[in-house]
Specification:
By secondary structure, the protein is an alpha/beta fold. It has 2 domains: 139 residues, Nucleotidyltransferase, domain 5 (2-Layer Sandwich), CATH 3.30.420.40; 170 residues, ATPase, nucleotide binding domain (Nucleotidyltransferase, domain 5). It contains 10 helices and 13 strands. Strand 10 and strand 11 form a beta hairpin. A 5-stranded mixed beta sheet has the order 3-2-1-4-8. The longest helix has 25 residues.
Length: 324
């Protein structure tokens, strides 16, 4: 450990979500020493958001010995561009959906420390490499299964950012050109099938198109979420099991295509939908091996993130800060 790290033993990680912004002060071992949060959407403009963030941060910075102990800050954010430190046209941010926000620069000026920003899925990939199940790996993909589907791709030990900072949007690979409408404006994106909202959408379709008995029929269709589907599936509900079989198969087929790009050592799955465990993973692995090119068969590992809950995204963001 070098002298600078000894003098400045912490970084700040910010998981900037559409609903909440969670801040953590993290040491080199990946232990979160202090944490705080604000509501992302409680502010009409980014200036007010940054001011509220700085007010909340100063309290926890003081708890660890002041700004002199902080090396840098890392931010994981939707539509975050690592090259420019900007958030660009993020549809889920009230103050950021129609503009380019120089958020890294704003925090640098507010705190007086270096700040790096990347998208949330890339932050998850860096976090897995630094603290999680990808330690020691140089070629892997993290696929985030939440409200949407995101991905962070690591090749030869480096995150793939592409020419403009936006590489790795595997959730928007089209898996059915005549398929479901997507928030991106196109049809049949993987996200429309394999996200939490996609699972709920599949359940509603299955209820409408089949007569299979299911406890989900007792609910209003609009009230069905992926949580209800997984609860029903765990109890052996046939229709809910069929939904997860379908979802896992779609994701496995997509991963078989992704393998042709970078031949990853592992696919690491992160996010709320992974709580379904083997309900999702078994059909996924089966479909992958049935569809992947023969040269890739029986090579890739399929792993669930070992980083816990909301702290995982904070750790991922903090790992971006350590690279500065």
């Amino acid at each position: 450990m070098n002298g600078q790290t000894e003098l400045k033993p912490y970084v700040i990680g910010l998981d900037l979500g559409g609903t909440n912004s969670i801040f953590g002060i993290v040491d080199i071992r990946g232990e979160i020493k202090a944490t705080t949060a604000i509501k992302t959407q409680a502010y009409d403009n980014v200036e007010d958001y940054v001011k509220a963030s700085l007010d909340a941060l100063h309290i926890i910075i003081d708890q660890v010995g002041g700004i002199g102990t902080i090396k840098a800050m890392g931010i994981g954010a939707p539509n975050g561009n690592y090259y420019t430190g900007t958030i660009e046209f993020a549809p889920n941010l009230a103050w950021g959906h129609d503009s380019v926000i120089p958020l890294a620069k704003m925090f640098e000026e507010g705190l007086g420390i270096p700040v790096a920003l990347t998208n949330d899925a890339n932050a998850a990939a860096i976090g897995e490499m630094a603290y999680g199940v990808a330690r020691g790996m140089k070629n892997f993909m993290v696929i985030t299964l939440g409200t949407g589907v995101g991905s962070g791709i690591v090749v030869n030990g480096q995150v793939v950012y592409g020419s403009d900072g936006f590489a790795g949007e595997l959730g928007h690979v089209i898996v059915d050109k005549n398929g479901r409408s997507c928030g991106c404006g196109r049809h049949g994106c993987l996200e429309t099938y394999c996200s939490a909202t996609g699972v709920a959408r599949s359940a509603r379709e299955f209820l409408e198109k089949t007569t299979t008995p299911s406890v989900l029929r007792e609910m209003k269709p609009e009230d069905i979420t992926s949580f209800e589907v997984s609860m029903a599936a765990e109890k052996g509900d046939k229709l809910a099991l069929d939904v997860y079989e379908f979802t896992g198969r779609m994701l496995g087929e997509a991963c078989a295509n992704f393998a042709a790009f970078s031949s990853p050592e592992a696919f690491i799955f992160f996010g709320g939908l992974t709580k379904a465990g083997k309900l999702l993973m078994e059909p996924l692995k089966k479909a992958y091996e049935e569809n992947v090119l023969k040269i890739y068969q029986n090579k890739a590992k399929f792993l669930l993130s070992a980083l816990e809950g909301s702290s995982a995204a904070v750790l991922g963001a903090s790992a971006v800060g350590w690279e500065l």
